[in-house]
Amino acid sequence: MEITREQYALIEDCLPRQRGNVSLSNLxxxxxxxxxxxxxxxxxxxxxxxxxxxxxYTRMNRWTKAGVLDRVFEQLQANQIVRVKLEAxxxxxxxxxxxxxxxxxxxxxxxxxxxxxxADGTPGFIWLPRMLVRP
Length: 135
Hints:
Blueprint: H1 5-11, H2 26-39, H3 53-66, H4 68-78, E1 85-87, H5 100-103, E2 130-132
Antiparallel strand pairs: 1-2
Helix pairs in contact: 2-3
């Protein structure tokens, strides 16, 4: 899932202008980010052809905090260059139950749900939103 120079020209205005002596172009960094997103690998697992993983990670982190990546992915989708499917999983320790063996439970007890779902606490399931933006 790499983009070409012609495709990059369509979204170039979303990225910050490079100044000074930089070792990696914005196109190279963007292709590395797309590689990590596609393959789900760790940053250290980036192939050497993309360059230093720490440089790429640092620039991606800066772009994320500045909102640049949001604009880039919106333009990638709007121009139908890359179709991205976003999935999010959120786990919170207050709603995730530990297995009885992990707590040292001695016996099983029957669950007695109350009449009010609010009184039962947080739900025992995890929302998995799936979004596919179509221009």
